[in-house]
Every structure is written in C-alpha cells, then in structure tokens.
Design a protein that fits this description.
By secondary structure, this protein is an alpha/beta fold. The model has no long low-confidence stretch (mean pLDDT about 95). About 55% of the residues lie in helices and about 10% in strands. The radius of gyration is 16 Å and the shape is globular. Bound molecules: shikimate-3-phosphate (S3P). The site of shikimate-3-phosphate has 10 residues, from loops.
C-alpha cells in the first residue's frame, strides 16, 4: 500500500505513543519514526544526558527542527516526545500536516506505568506524580489543539487501541476501508 499521509501520536510521557505507533505502523506496513530516537541519533547522546549538559531549551530547539522535518518528509507513523506540543509551531505542523491522535491518559495512570523510570529527565524529581499533574494541566489543552482524534488509553491493550485507531482513521477516510 502507498502511504499518503502522516499519522502522529501526541500525549504525556508513558501514554503509549511509541508502542501504539510502532504497532499501528506494522499493521499498516508504513514506516515508523520516533522523534526522540531521531534526536538521540543526531546528538549521539541520550535525551537525559543532553538535558543535563545543554538544558531543556536546547532540546526544544532540536525537537522543533526534527518535528518540522519529519512532518514534512515522507509519510509515516510518527511518535512525538511528550513536550513537542509546547511550541506553537510544532502544534501547527502536527495539526496541519498530520492526522494526529492524542493518547489521553490521566496523570495517575501514567504515574503507575512510569514510577520506576529513570530515563525521563522531567520526572527525576522528589514528587513525580505532582509533576505529572502539572504537566497534564498545562498540556492537555495543547494535545487537544494539535490532534484530530482523542483516544482514551485506560483499559484497552495496545492491540485493541491499535484496532480502534485504525477504525477511526478508516471512518475519517484517512485509511481505505478493509474488505469485509
Ligand atoms: C519529554 C518527553 C520525552 C522526551 C523528553 C521530554 C516531555 O518523550 O521528549 O524527555 O517534555 O514530556 P516521551 O513522551 O516519549 O517520554
């Protein structure tokens, strides 16, 4: 099948953007891109190390360049970093150039998944749940502004989420309907 569009995932860290994105790409036989991985390949460092050495603003500049390139490049399924929506230009690129899906997870759910995570620089604080609640309050409207679809991540497995997203994309005419 030829890919004609970009499908992008936005949402809090730990909402499943990479795992759902990767499985959707596999199912559609589309390329999968993860903006955080592209950044890490370019800088030759982990994002956590880059944050420590260069700071968040430098990371956001790189992220803006990569989101611009990936949303303008060949069509793919794209997973974005949880803070990509902080910059207006990224929100515009996601909204205008992609069919973006917001994987909506309440902060308490994300906290359950990420409480042992040591790689996400923004969560290496004394009270990560309080931090996630702040991130959610700030970002939930920005994810909604960037996305065309909102999916609740609560109960369904990754496989059922992928099915539901594929159905939504079919209904919206983004994907051709599957034969009965
Ligand atoms: C960030 C989320 C991370 C990564 C960076 C900053 C954020 O991506 O881009 O650590 O601001 O929420 P994930 O959402 O994949 O964890």
């Amino acid at each position: 099948m030829t890919t004609l569009v970009h499908v992008a995932f936005v949402g809090l860290p730990g909402s499943g953007k990479s795992s759902v994105g990767r499985q959707l790409a596999r199912r559609l036989c589309w390329p999968f891109m993860d903006s955080d991985h592209v950044i890490e390949e370019r800088i030759g460092l982990s994002i956590r190390e880059f944050f420590e050495r260069e700071g968040e603003d430098a990371f956001r500049d790189l992220e803006q360049t990569v989101v611009d390139e990936l949303t303008a490049g060949s069509p793919c399924v794209l997973s974005t970093g949880g803070g990509a929506v902080l910059r207006k230009i990224n929100r515009e690129h996601l909204k205008q150039r992609t069919h973006a899906v917001y994987l909506h997870s309440p902060p308490e759910e994300v906290f359950r998944r990420l409480r042992h995570d040591r790689n996400r620089p923004l969560l290496q604080v004394a009270d990560p749940l309080a931090r996630l609640r702040e991130l959610y309050a700030l970002r939930d409207p920005l994810y909604r502004e960037s996305a065309r679809f909102v999916m609740e991540t609560g109960r369904p497995s990754v496989a059922s989420l992928v099915n539901m997203i594929a159905d939504q994309l079919e209904e919206a005419g983004v994907l051709p309907a599957r034969p009965e």
